Structures are given as C-alpha cells and as structure tokens.
Amino acid sequence: MTVTGYLLWFLSLIPGFLLTACLRRLTDQIHYRLVKLILFVLKACLAIWLAYLVIATASPFLWKYNYLLSGLYIALLADCLCDLVLAVLSFTRYKEIRNLGMILLCILTAVLFLQGTINSQMILSNHLRYSSEKLTTKHRFVFLSDLHYGSSQTQETVKNALTEIELLHPEFVLLGGDITDEHTEKEEMEWIFEQLGPLHTPVYYIYGNHDRQDRGSYIGGKKFTEEELKSAIEDNGLIILQDEFVQISDDL
C-alpha cells in the first residue's frame, strides 16, 4: 500500500467515526440500563451486518464505498467495546470522569485502526506437516495466496516474505490466487510477478477470483487486461495451471 493509500484509508475512517460519535453522545445521555443494553445489541448486530456486507457481498455500491463502510465498521466496533468498558467502569470512581465515553471512543477507534493497519502488513508463516502412504519421499513446498498486492501489503512486506520463502528452500511454490486484485495498477501487477519469478524453484500459479479484475468496472475499470496479466506471469517464469496438473515426482 502506498502513502496515498494509507491517507485514503485514514480519511475513510472519519465519516464513520463522526457518525458513531453522535451515537455515542446520545447513548451517554441515556440513564436507563435496559435501553442502553438494547442499543448495544442493535449496534453489535449492525457491526456484524456491516462486516458481512464488506467481506461476503459484491454489489457495485459496496465495492465503490468499501473503504467508507469499513471505516464505519471500525468505529462502530469501537463504540461497542466502549459500552463494555463503561459498564465495568460504572462500578468504579472513574465513572465520574467528564466525557469518559467520548474519550474511550477516540482511544478504542485509534487502537482498532492501528491494529488493523499493522496486521495487514504481517504475512505470517504456518508450518504444517502431512503424511500419506502414497508418498515414498519427503517433499517441502510453500503455498502462498491472497497478497492482494496494490491494496494491502507494501513492497517491503512482500520482499521480506519472499526472502523467508527462499530460506526454506522449498521444492516448489504454489501461488493460490489473488496475488493482485481490482485495486492493483498495471505497474504494481508487473512488479509483484517480477519479484515472484526469481525464487530459484518452480513456481506454479492458479487464478483467484480477483486476479483478472473481473469486478474492475465497479471501481472505474480494469487497470490491465487478462492478456497482460498472463504475459507478466509467464514472462517471469511462473507456470500457470488452468484445468491442468503437473507431476512433481514419481509419487507426487
């Protein structure tokens, strides 16, 4: 993600935070615990619904306003956490602090925003071991997917992950799709496959549901064609598997 991307991501949080702050002010003026409980349940349900909309649906409206809705989700989730913290603090002397609800909302929104932003730059390795009677030799390979380069990780994050992969000395690497997505510019697409090419081991690639920018029209059009994507992959030595299989050895 570029500096501009980070700035847009931060700005997308502001409308959701302002809306939630108004809701927070209203909640703080209510003295009936039952009404507060009902509001908390409604806000929690709304947060879950927003998360579902952003992650699991694919309408043009949601794609266009994805970042704004994500910002609203973060602020709403922070407000729900704020309710829980205030419920605990209501039994202590801290409940007398003026504007405590708004202070907590600001802090929790910032914490969730920073945690999510930092977490998006963490590509974590998960070492798994499988066994089968059909295997006569040991094999070591790396499965890598969903980088979404261009809308998530920075160049430094990707380079660090690829350095870690090389240190594992895998027999081959399998790219499970969504290395790019609809937000990826052509130059970014070409750069990421240039990095994946020189891994000193066979690299096999399958298309994900975002790589070819099938929903690019939702956000202003595709940045590259399917032919340009295929050329960038194959020109860097990656092997595309599309309704095909490859034999690694006699037993695999």
Can you characterise this structure?
- The chain has eight helices and four strands; from the N terminus they run H-H-H-H-H-E-H-E-H-E-H-E.
- The chain has helices at 3-28, 33-56, 60-64, 66-89, 100-119, 155-168, 186-196, 226-235, and strands spanning 141-144, 172-175, 203-205, 239-240.
- The chain has a four-stranded parallel β-sheet, with helices on one face.
- Strand 1 (141-144), helix 6 and strand 2 (172-175) form a beta-alpha-beta unit.
- Helix 1 packs antiparallel against helix 5, helix 2 (33-56) packs antiparallel against helix 4 and helix 4 (66-89) crosses helix 5 (100-119).
- The protein starts with a helix and ends in a 12-residue tail after the last strand.
Descriptive labels:
8 helices, mainly alpha, 4 strands, 252 residues
Topology of helices and strands:
Blueprint: H1 3-28, H2 33-56, H3 60-64, H4 66-89, H5 100-119, E1 141-144, H6 155-168, E2 172-175, H7 186-196, E3 203-205, H8 226-235, E4 239-240
Helix pairs in contact: 1-4, 1-5, 2-4, 4-5
- Computed over alpha carbons, the radius of gyration is 23 Å
Total helical elements: 8
Helix content: 40-55%
Distance between the termini: 37 Å
Oligomer: single chain
Placed side by side, the strands forming the largest sheet appear as 1-2-3-4
**How much of the sequence is in beta strands?**
5-15%
The structural class is: mainly alpha
| Unreliable stretches | none
Question: Describe the biggest sheet?
Answer: 4 strands, parallel
Q: What's the β-strand tally?
A: 4
